[in-house]
Fold these 2 entries.
Entry 1:
Amino acid sequence: MRFASHRDIARALERALRRAGLPVAYSAGFSPHPKISYAGAAPTGVASEAEYFELTLSADLPPETVRAALDDSMPEGIDVLDAVFAGEGSLADRLTASDWRIELPGVDAERAGTAAAAFLAADTVEVERLTKKGRRRFDTRAAVAHLRVEPAGTREAQSAYAIIRMVVRHTTPAVRPDDVLTGLHQVAGLAPPSPPLVTRLAQGPLDEASGVIANPLAREGQDR
Amino acid sequence: MPVESIFGRLEELLPRVAKPIQYVGGELNSVVKEWDAAEVRWALMYPDAYEVGVPNQGIQILYEVLNEREGVLAERTYAVWPDLEALMREHGVPQFTVDAHRPVGAFDVLGVSFATEMGYTNLLTALDLAGVPLHAADRTDEHPVVLAGGHSAFNPEPVADFLDATVLGDGEEIALAVTELIREWKREGRPGGRDGLLERLAATGGVYVPKFYDVSYHPDGRIAAYTPNRPGVPWRVAKHTVMDLDAWPYPKRPLVPLAESVHERYSVEIFRGCTRGCRFCQAGMITRPVRERSLTTVGDMVEQGLKASGFQEVGLLSLSSADHSEIGDIAKGLADRYEGTNTGLSLPSTRVDAFNIDLANELTRNGRRSGLTFAPEGGSERMRRVINKMVTEDDLIRTVTAAYAAGWRQVKLYFMCGLPTETDDDVLQIGRLATEVIRAGREVTGRRDIRCTVSIGGFVPKPQTPFQWVGQTHHTVVDARLRKLRDTLRADKQYGRAIGFRYHDGEPSTIEGLLSRGDRRVGAVIEAVWADGGRFDGWSEHFSYQRWHDCAERALAPHGVDLDWFTTRERERDEVLPWDHLDAGLDRDWLWQDWQDALHGEDAVEVDDCRWTPCYDCGVCPSMGTEIQIGPTGRKLLPLSVVGKG
Ligand code: SF4
């Protein structure tokens, strides 16, 4: 699913809902659309193990029934892992940070480590990116809560293969993994020879003290 | 020989190309079968971009029909865009299928469906990337048999050098027959090698193998004769006609891609063939006679197709869908069944009559209401008689005003320019008609916000039609007429602003004309254009007229012919046409007579529809052993017991 855009995924979800025969609520108006809201969608080109959306149904169904029916109907490569009743507040409020893994084929782990240290040592690392609102310049350093280079595993030991893990807060404008890579390039000249493989491992509320991202669907108040 | 997936190598290239999702496959309802368990393996190609190719009905049907067979495997491949093509060349990645990412060169058959001629250069790219020699004559037993079908296969001569074989007409039965011949031939240890197989295919009388025919030419460039050059090869090759559409209810499990495609809907053909007899229409001529799918089968297919896909829209396809003998019941039945489910119904082609407005209202009951399209095709009454599109101006105004009165705000009218015997005035009549539509519409509705869009295409004479002999109007003439029309509309202060005007310039029509009615000598032009970088000729941003023009000049000069010779030259009755040995069932004398009848202008002879009037002997039914199959069945669609309502 790495190459699917958010639109592609949204379309697949709407179709899966119809195939599954789930009673989705539709918005009123000239061209009705199903009531689904997304938060923190991963950018195209990035794999993800943790995407969330909120869905309004027109009937009361047990979350597990909905999850199983949807999971059956989604295309291969997209699994529906969990469903709970929506609680108070918006979904976006519960998703305050993401845990990312960035694999850098052809980059030496030690080299990546030096770059990471330089990045963390800086007060601000401003980068520029073309956003929907035009070219924007923003800081990436403040959003990064954690950043470390994993020790090279045995599989990758023969050739240079660095793996970065980082926790990034959801800010506006959003700091994306490629922004951090741009930052690493700026502060330490890190230039991967082939495209990095980025995966989102988790999303959820960030505990600033421990640096741990909790499960946003934690079972408080699920039996409403 | 084990065949490995190339996905690993491809994946590394994908982050560097536009819309990579189109190359990863994984569509819902796609099928991956075990390579070694299959005896016959097909790679099916639609020679255009994935987003255009993936919804293609022909490919989807064959994909399912073949994969349902024991021991048969079918995968799909599409044209890759130039950005990926360059990377594939650089990294040695071959043309691949999107299902299991297997190299196309490893399959037994590469089946190509040509809906238009503008995909020819894309075939060459695919062959080259697959490591398959471009010329059929250079291929060995290692290479797949390159087999083409689709409407363009009714004159495959321009691509004859690149194809091993072609088939005409409906693909379902012949694809299976070809499969069985290949299976037998492989089981017997491939006697005679590649040519042994091609001879068996040719001997059926239903597969055309171009290299088994020699072409000779007159000194002036015209064709003298097509002659089979080995025993057992028929003089003429016949088209295939599926006679019971209810027995072939495909697609059952439509492909649903993750990527966006041009048609996001479940499409079901409600009938094949059309006998309205529009003289310009190749599709209508080559798909005769009319064979309807019954209302109950249509209902079952829609139910199953929606369940299997999750699509929100149903397209009721055919060449003239409102002509189905039970279209009213189909539309009402489906609208009732899916009431409250946000399921839209669409009818891609609409006829000009009032009945259509009721139908359109019914169809949009559960979905969106965008605009209505009508195709009078010719601007003047005279022009419409020439092309046998029998719509009077009164009919048109009445229909369109009824649409406005029923609440539609936007009506699109489709016309052609460059038709045989056309004058400037015929084209200017399009503008007059459009202003009349707006005037009458304003009068009926009392509103000023109604709109009418005039959309115009250049006419290209097609093989196997009564217009196969005509001289194509030069594109500069077409462009000039359309400029005049546009200027007139712009100058109209009263109605001009309510009329939209759409046309593309005429240059591509000339090349389409060359590729439509060309012969084997045109193959060198296609190859030269491709070698010079020609790709995706159906896309205006990729099409280069200059390149085609220059390559045609150079490649055709040695034969003493040129671009004009193939396009604007009118043919004589007895000239051997490059497709005369390919039999669509149409009686050549009938076609000629129909062309002559067209020339009587105001008094052009009208041809009725043989569904409602006696057979007028176009020749198809007796020569192909077919007959008209239409309803009504008198049945109705019953409500479905379980439909997820939202
Ligand atoms: S042979 Fe007669 S019935 Fe058959 S398609 Fe032609 S005109 Fe119609």
Entry 2:
Amino acid sequence: MFKYELKKIFFRTGSIIAMGILLLLIGLVCWFATDVYYVDRNGVKQRGPSAVAKLRAEQKAWAGYLDEKKLRRVIAENKKIKSSPEYQSENETDREIAYSRGQGFEDIRTLLNKSFAREFREYDYYRADRLSEESALRFYENRVKLLKEWLEGEANEQYSDGEKAFFISRYEDIETPFYYDYATGWSRLFEYAPTLVMVMLLVLGYLVSGIFSNEFSWKADAVFFSSYYGRNRATAAKIAAGFCVVTGVYLTAMLIYSAVVLLYLGADGWSCPVQILFSGWKSFYNIAVWQEYLLIWAGGYVGCLFIAFLGMWVSAKTKSAVLAVTVPFVLIFIPSFLGNIRFSLVGKILGLLPDQLLQMGNVVGYFNVYSFGGKVVGAAPVLLVVYAALIIPLAPGMYRGFRHMEIG
Amino acid sequence: MELAVTDITKRFRDMTAVDRVSCRMTKGVYGLLGVNGAGKTTLMRMLCTLLHPTEGGITWDGEDIFAMDGSYRRILGYLPQEFGYYPEFSVHDYLMYIASIKGLRPAAARRRAGQLLETVGLSGSERKKMKKLSGGMKRRVGIAQAMLNDPKILVLDEPTAGLDPNERIRFRNLISELAGERLILLSTHIVSDVEYIAREILLMRGGKICAAGTTEELIEAMPARVWRVPAAKDQAGSFMKSYKTANMKAVRDGVELRLLSEKRPAEEAAEESATLEDLFLYYFGEKAGEGNV
Ligand SMILES: Nc1ncnc2c1ncn2[C@@H]1O[C@H](COP(=O)(O)OP(=O)(O)OP(=O)(O)O)[C@@H](O)[C@H]1O
Ligand SMILES: [Mg+2]
């Protein structure tokens, strides 16, 4: 009967269209994520596999520990370029030529911008250009210093002493120097993952919304519930079908997306700390890039499963597919309407809404922590555990809700 | 083998759809006859455990059917009045799915589905999509579906609705054929559907069973008698206002009426033997002018 439940889901015009949209979207997201350019020494932008290869080769030349020696070299090289006539020129092409020379260490240059920012939350694109080679010494120290200043100033009210100590110890505990490698494949992959996961969730929400309610709208309910297994196994088969659709579609879409991006841009840099990524410099999660990747997978999966199951539960209780489709929309869009209040109590609550699971890459960069009896935990593990635990009662919930349905 | 309904009532808010109904059924065909809104469907839904009665109980061989749960549904086949299906499924897929939720193993299901399609005259249509079948063909798949588990109790809610006269006759024969060792409860508001095949007829009105028995018993017990009355054209109207009229036919010098009345309605009236149609008229019919108040 499980096989036929799947047929009921996929043999519908709407589902075929939804799957088509999803495929199109995967294609689009892959295209955006892999759209990387390389500027050649003549100042001309190049795209395509050969451009990726050149960019990768130039950046890999800078791979290695970001110790004082390397940072001094970056600052010196950068200075040289910035004082070159091409950089000073008014001519667009000349400036591109100047940029071209610094492409190999551009990622490291942005880290310098971040480290030497005047304030924790500031980002000044030209900061690195004003650095002296001696500053290289303070590259790691600055990171902690800015955090401390921020925690004592702007963010003073938002965190308890325990939480502040937690952030600082995480910052101090990280192993330095960071190992840098070309990691564009991963940073691009992380950047577009939330878009993919969110649209995928809407498609999944649509696919599973009718699992229960269509029995009623097709008026197949009377035969279903008067059959031997209608109120037990056949209901369980519906839940199993929902689970397998979510799992299957999610795994397939993420696999395609990851494979395309990483095969095209390269999977180098997988073992680097996330702090070498533009989005990860400030993260208090001392994890490697591959670990963030796993977090994104796990978060996306738990999030999709939770929200899809919640939708199914609603439709099992209300017989309404419309309500079921609404659930993912509400859960994704309401938090983004409430804005980016990342701090304060509202921020604490927003930080625990299920939409966060769909963008674990961003969560890794947020300063959301929760204290449990004196122990401080980052939002990422809390989200995973809480929602994985919440999925568990949903299955028996929809089972009971559906099997006791009266048909009148 | 006995299905016993004891004093069941079903209320929807302030509306009583089934009102203290009791009856006992064993094997054979039972016809549930009643006009629209009489409560037939509601009664059948309760017999199929889809609805819980507000009051009263239903037992199968002495056991409460709701307590029996799966073991009752295992011996039940149901063709609902509004027979819904999965539109994109082929007939074969549909039957295989229903067989699976009825607990049949795939091999047995395939065999059974093949036999039943032959019985209902649909062999060859296995690959057709459900939504592409005609109304009559859908009903036949509906019957096949209900019969998959070879049920001891077969409940058919207006299985002949929307069928043309030929289909209707085929259907009646099919039901007689299926009767055998089972209990069939069939609802309809068309007398001829059950007149010759039902072992017992239950007349339902306003949520109550107002009369039950074999055709003969019911006719015997009917308080009114049937009269053939010749009348002039201009007299017809006044007769029809005073008596339930089964028929009026034009004859050479006026009309001939078929009336229901306890007493002789006119000097020239001749008594005729009553049929089930007359009985239906007696219980459910209206005199001309009634009902449009
Ligand atoms: N779920 C419900 N909620 C409220 N009222 C209902 C419900 N189901 C049935 N009724 C009412 O109960 C009464 C009996 O309905 P039922 O469908 O049992 O009649 P029926 O004899 O099957 O009629 P028909 O010949 O039109 O099928 C009707 O007045 C109907 O409006
Ligand atoms: Mg009905």
